[in-house]
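User: Predict structure, ligand zinc ion.
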Amino acid sequence: MNDHDQTDRSPTTPTRGLILGIETSCDETAAAVVARGSDVLSSVVSSQVDLHARFGGVVPEIASRAHLELLVPVVAQAMVEAGVASNDLDAVAVTHGPGLIGALLVGLSGAKGLALGWGLPLVGVNHLEAHLYAAQLEHGEVLLPQMVLLVSGGHTQLVLVDAPGEYLLIGGTLDDAAGEAFDKVARFLGLGYPGGPAIEAAATSGDPTAIDFPRAMANSGFDFSFSGLKTAVINHVRRHREVATDDVAASFQAAVVDVLALKLARAAAEHAVAGVALAGGVAANSPLRERVASDAARAGLQCLVPGREYCTDNAAMVAAAGWYRLVSDGPSGLELPAVPGLRLG
Ligand code: KG4
Ligand code: ZN
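Assistant: Predicted complex:
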């Protein structure tokens, strides 16, 4: 019998716990090898940013085609960098949603082919859950319950983690996601794409107190709204043509960070959690990282902030989440579908 025959494997007894993770939900083609959900042996991310930049955002059809070209070399590089062969692996984990349907299908089809060809279990991973596992890649013990602020290009959520794999959505955005707000404001200011890093760079030479932009719903509830802030930026710049772009970027960033940090701190206090964590691309933002860390220290809470490379989309977080799903639920079937609107919990 083949060493890796699916019928030969109990979900609770993987050997070295080596998982190949594959991520293609948006515009990063990524593959990684991670041992037992925390030890990163390799993490390769091929960004398509240059392909999409001239359009000011991700073009789904271009993303799918690029994933198709990049997937095999990216997986091969991840395996070589990790120094592993297919028969060292315990499973192939892949993002199956949420994301762009065409982009998801490329990674999912590739992962199924590899799992079938190599006789390995396939594990479907929720991209949002993967972001939640990113903080665990470099940290040891995670104190629960934990309140996670998940802020990416497509999502802005406060998630209460009571136990591993148990998520309760405390709040979400009513309109734009935080990353989307960064991207739209950066485009309006002519700062380029993706907007988050561009705004952060411009803000370093700006005054965050120059313009008092609104902090929507900062002191009420746990939902977010960023579209009013975006409109306030546009109106301010149209009325004050002479305003320094760096000051607008810094003041906008300060407003976003303020709202995110205030709500995270209030949600943490109200739910009496032991720790807080940041996840998602916007968690790469330095002022947000610093503010959340200092608020948590003042409140005596554990604070997990992933390394920047594990905030934005990557496959190490997919492999980590895949390991935990494999151990708790066992493998997914090869009929696993791509689910563009997949939710957490
Ligand atoms: O998690 P991610 O890589 O992809 C999604 O799943 O959406 O997040 C991408 C988002 C983009 O909107 C990008 O502008 C934002 O994260 N982002 C940042 C920073 N780096 C990336 N936002 C603020 N500051 C940053 N340094
Ligand atoms: Zn993401």
